[in-house]
Design a protein that fits this description.
The protein has two domains: about 1-240, no CATH class; about 250-445, P-loop containing nucleotide triphosphate hydrolases (Rossmann fold), CATH 3.40.50.300. About 45% of the residues lie in helices and about 15% in strands. It has 16 helices and 16 strands. Strand 4 and strand 5 form a beta hairpin. The longest helix is centred in the C-terminal third of the chain and has 23 residues, at about 415-435.
């Protein structure tokens, strides 16, 4: 183990791995990209959870790295997703299709605490200077790491939850009282609650922890400058307004799905949108869905056509609106279905509705075509016949060959595999469209 910068000499070896832990390949690629920059960085938390990260991978980087950080992370297959109102936090997402899991990096350039990152500190540069190296990892000095972990629990989380007491006790063992961070904490909280917290953890006096935590946090808040209140208000407003501002970051992505009844179109689209890192909107474009007023409308001259046109205009407007807002738009039922054998309505109303559907519906950036034999589709829903479903299947495959952006998925595979493949294709297309349509990152659906 080598040291970059000074070390307090009070390292608790339990906090710093003595053997290289397994690291997820994408995370390892991100670490390698940071190393190539030549700028300092440290993994703030979670060194023992890198093989398959269950949460964010928290990284502190030098502010001088920020101008090139997005490009560096792209080299490791990560894409930045904006999260306004989060201080210096930058969130980078990648999708591991081999493990069917999202990997998220949470990168900061300063150390700030509080639910709205309102309590800034001058600690970042010192932590980077005192970093240590352990294989592929760049880690904080163990004493720094101990204090940062305790402050994270008290100031960010607001408590030391019972499930975290054991880890906090191990951390407190390394929280020396004469290091740079301890000195800073003593200046911010001169009433001594920080030392009381550490000693209570070391002595296993867990019943005292809630009161000490409340007093420490209150003292820290009292010592904060007036600008902390403004930062809290500004960051909170940024989070609230973030959805309104999304259209300034990204032009949105439209994904549509085609396939016979029973292929799993709706299940696939809703599954893709469930965990996607940007906001998504499911839009059903079917013009022939049953409605409560069908019987009455169909008695009126032109009522059926008017109903179809209204549904088409409403669905198209909804899709375009959410696309402009920078969202992932998931279209269920697309006008290409009208090109299937036996689906072409040559009546006046049929020609009008088909023309409107093709002209009003936004063209998908990605079209997923679910493919399965007719007998499989019939067994799933029991609608139509095997022969009809097989004829439609072949028509869908022929359409897929002609339509731009179409990808065929094997719908006979287990549902989770179909979903994994669909998510991977959407994420791949998302990155291509976003990188070519805007130089700015996308706005996140949520932020941690």
């Amino acid at each position: 183990m080598t040291t970059n910068g000074s070390n307090s000499g009070r390292a608790d070896e339990g906090l710093v791995p003595t053997t290289a832990p397994p690291i997820h390949p994408m995370v390892a690629a991100a670490f390698a990209a940071l190393d190539r920059s030549g700028e300092p960085w440290v993994l703030l938390r979670g060194a023992d959870d890198l093989a398959q990260p269950s949460g964010d991978v928290d990284i502190l980087v030098a502010a001088t790295l920020l101008p090139s950080l997005d490009a560096l992370m792209m080299q490791a297959a990560f894409h930045r997703v904006l999260a306004r109102g989060r201080g210096s936090h930058r969130f980078y997402f990648g999708y591991d299709d081999l493990r069917a899991a999202w990997v998220k990096l949470d990168v900061v350039s300063d150390i700030a605490f509080g639910p709205f990152q309102q309590w800034n500190t001058p600690l970042a540069d010192g932590c980077l200077e005192r970093r240590i190296r352990d294989g592929a990892l760049s880690l904080p000095d163990p004493v720094d790491q101990a204090w940062l972990a305790l402050l994270h629990l008290v100031l960010d989380k607001g408590e030391i939850a019972p499930t975290r007491v054991g880890a906090a006790q191990s951390t407190a063992a390394a929280a020396a009282f004469d290091g740079p961070i301890a000195t800073y904490v003593g200046q911010r909280v001169p009433t001594g609650e920080a030392a009381l917290l550490v000693q209570a953890l070391r002595d296993s006096r867990t019943a005292e922890l809630p009161d000490i935590t409340v007093r420490l946090r209150a003292a820290w808040e009292r010592s904060a400058a007036g600008s902390a209140v403004l930062r809290a208000v500004g960051n909170r407003a940024g989070r609230v307004l973030s959805p309104t501002l999304q259209g300034r970051s990204f032009h949105g992505l439209v994904v549509a799905v085609m396939g016979p009844d029973g292929a799993g179109k709706t299940t696939l689209l809703r599954g893709v949108g469930a965990d996607f890192p940007v906001p998504s909107k499911y839009v059903y474009m079917g013009m022939w869905a049953a409605g409560r007023w069908d019987a009455q409308l169909h008695r009126l001259p032109g009522g059926r056509l008017g109903q179809k046109v209204l549904r088409l205009v409403r669905g198209s407007a909804t899709a375009r609106y959410h696309r402009v807002r920078g969202r992932l738009v998931l279209l269920d039922r697309v006008p290409y279905d009208a090109q299937l054998p036996g689906s072409i309505d040559t009546s006046f109303g049929g020609r009008v509705s088909s023309a409107l559907a093709l002209s009003l519906t936004p063209q998908p950036d990605l079209l997923l075509v679910l493919d399965a034999p007719g007998e499989v589709m019939f067994a799933r829903k029991g609608e139509h016949s095997v022969a009809v479903l097989e004829r439609w299947r072949q028509a869908y495959l022929q359409l897929a060959e002609r339509l731009p952006g179409a990808c065929v998925l094997d719908a006979t595979e287990p549902q989770d595999k179909v979903l994994n493949r669909g998510v991977a294709l959407v994420w791949q297309r998302f990155r291509v469209v976003e990188n070519t349509s805007s130089s700015r990152p996308t706005t996140a659906r949520t932020a941690a």
